[in-house]
Structures are given as structure tokens and as C-alpha cells.
Write a structure and sequence with these properties.
CATH architecture of one domain: 3-Layer(aba) Sandwich
CATH class of one domain: Alpha Beta
Largest sheet: 5 strands, antiparallel
Number of strands: 8
Order of helices and strands: EEHHHHEEEHEHEE
Low-confidence stretches: none
CATH superfamily of one domain: Gcn5-related N-acetyltransferase (GNAT)
Distance between the termini: 35 Å
Strand order of the largest sheet: 1-2-3-4-5
């Protein structure tokens, strides 16, 4: 299945697009990955109908209400979905929160870092964002390393869903 949503950013290896209902199969696989469940949480998505509902009530609502949301990133040669990356509006945070996940078979190739860099650059420019947050579970050292490589700095520990979560902050350099 190809990514066919509206293009929001491109990088050397990736097309980053708005998610479509046709990617329900991909979302189903992604949100049921053990690492997603461990670090992000179980969303109780057990079939494609649940996945379509997740897309309709999550990314689609966010695109409409906030002008941003979670996007699918795809290999720009084969155009297959590999992960998601995008901004989330959290009512308890002052600034948007960048979120991301990638299927296991595509990990350790720098693709998530590339996707996050593409989204961060595109959304900061398009939306005029100067500050972005990232929330990461303290034991998720790979994600912490990734976010720090993007220029995020540790801000503080916050409680999210009753669990200690590290909050990181990115401030866009004036030159960008």
C-alpha cells in the first residue's frame, strides 16, 4: 500500500504525508508493536475498523483543529509506510509535542531522526512555531538520544497518566 495523503515534507529518503484511512492496516501494526505499547500505551486498537476510528478521531481532528498532527513517513522510492511523526496538541502543555514511532523492521537506519527533522523544520516554518516539546518515558534511552540529537534539551519531569515522563524543549534558532 502506498502513502497517498497530502505531502507535508520531504527529506533525502522520505516522503512525509498526512495519514489516510487507507493506512489503517499500517496503523494497526504500528500501535500494536510491543515498543509502542510499552512507551506510548495500549490504544485498544484490535482491527482495521478501530484503526480507521483512531485516524478519524486523532490525526484528522488535529489537522482540522490545529493545522498539524501525526503524519505517515514513507520510503520515497517504494512509497511504503514505515512510521509516523508529527505534532500533537496536549492541553497540559503550552507548546505542541512532537511524537513519533516506527515499525521494527525499519529501525536503526536513521529514518526516525530524518522524519523528525523534516517535520520539525516544515512545521516550525509553516506554522511559525518557535518552541516544541517532546515527552519521553525515562527508560526510553533511544528516543531520548534521538530528541537530543535534534536539539531538544531536558526541561523537567512531569506526571503524564500517573507516570513520570521527561519533558524536553526545542527552541528554534532565530536563523532558521
Amino acid at each position: 500500500m502506498n502513502c497517498k495523503g497530502t505531502l507535508v515534507a520531504q527529506t533525502e529518503r522520505l516522503n512525509i504525508r498526512k495519514v489516510t484511512l487507507a493506512e489503517a492496516y499500517f496503523i494497526l501494526d504500528l500501535v500494536n508493536d510491543p515498543d509502542w505499547i510499552r512507551h506510548i500505551g495500549d490504544r485498544n486498537i484490535h482491527n482495521q475498523a478501530d484503526a480507521r476510528e483512531f485516524i478519524e478521531n486523532g490525526p484528522f481532528v488535529s489537522y482540522r483543529e490545529n493545522g498539524y498532527g501525526l503524519y505517515v513517513f514513507c520510503d520515497n522510492r517504494k512509497n511504503r509506510p514505515m512510521g509516523i511523526c508529527g505534532m500533537l496538541k496536549r492541553p497540559f502543555l503550552e507548546y505542541p509535542d512532537i511524537g513519533y514511532a516506527i515499525l521494527p523492521e525499519f529501525r536503526r537506519k536513521g529514518l526516525t531522526l530524518e522524519a523528525c527533522g523534516g517535520v520539525l523544520s516544515a512545521d516550525c516554518k509553516r506554522l511559525g512555531l518557535k518552541t516544541v516539546h517532546a515527552m519521553i518515558s525515562p527508560e526510553n534511552t533511544q528516543s531520548i538520544n534521538l530528541i537530543e540529537r535534534l536539539g531538544f534539551e531536558f526541561t523537567k519531569v512531569i506526571q503524564h497518566q500517573g507516570v513520570d515522563t521527561k519533558l524536553f524543549t526545542y527552541t528554534k534558532p532565530e536563523a532558521l
